[in-house]
Amino acid sequence: QVQLQESGGGSVQSGGSLKLSCAASGDTRCMAWFRQAPGKERERIASIETDNGATSYADSVKGRFTISHGNASNRAYLQMNSLKPEDTAMYYCAADWPPCDGNYNYWGQGTQVTVSS
Q1: For position 74, what pLDDT does the model report?
Q2: Dist CA 50 CA 35 (whole Å)
Q3: Are 84 and 17 in contact (CB under 8 A)?
Q4: What is the C-alpha to C-alpha distance for residues 49 and 42, in angstroms, rounded to an integer?
Q5: Is 83 helix (H, G, I), strand (E, B) or coil?
Q6: 94 exposure class (CB count in 10 Å sphere: 0-12, 13-18, 19+)
Q7: Are 116 and 16 contacting, i.e. CB atoms less than 8 angstroms apart?
Q8: Residue 106, beta-bridge partner list
Q9: Is it the case that residue 26 has pLDDT exceeding 80?
Q10: How far apart are CA 108 and CA 29, in angstroms?
Q11: CA dihedral 83, 42, 7, 99 (to 10 degrees)
Q12: Distance CA 70, CA 67 (A)
């Protein structure tokens, strides 16, 4: 069983930045960030394959958010710039073993991001 731990959420004003971190207890190499706002469906916003660094982004965050991984293949980060009130949500880290097919069996408990106007 893999456990994920997120950190770095908080409250910022519109236009500000935050960096989220995720650490997995296993050597998972498929990692992603999702978010869910109240009353909305969960949205995958960024993913990374730590073996080759391949990334993908949702249109809603493209150009503002950057996903990366640390030296260890079981860590992922989400740098969030130019934050908007509509980015307010609970953010979740997800991970799984290769192949990185978009399915994730391991989830963190979430970290809240609140952006005020």
Answers
A1: 82
A2: 20
A3: no
A4: 21
A5: coil
A6: buried
A7: no
A8: 95
A9: yes
A10: 15
A11: -110
A12: 10
pLDDT confidence bin for 7, thresholds 50/70/90: very high
Dihedral sign computed on CA atoms, order 26, 28, 31, 34: negative
Sign of dihedral through CA atoms 75, 98, 101, 3? negative
pLDDT at 107 over 90: yes
Torsion sign (Cα): 24, 42, 112, 9: positive
β-pair type (54-57, 10-13): unpaired
Helix (H, G, I), strand (E, B) or coil at 86: helix
Q: Are residues 26 and 14 in contact, defined by beta-carbon separation less than 8 angstroms?
A: no
Both tokens of 80, joined, read: 């969030």
Token duo for residue 37: 């706002």
Q: Is the pLDDT of residue 70 over 90?
A: no
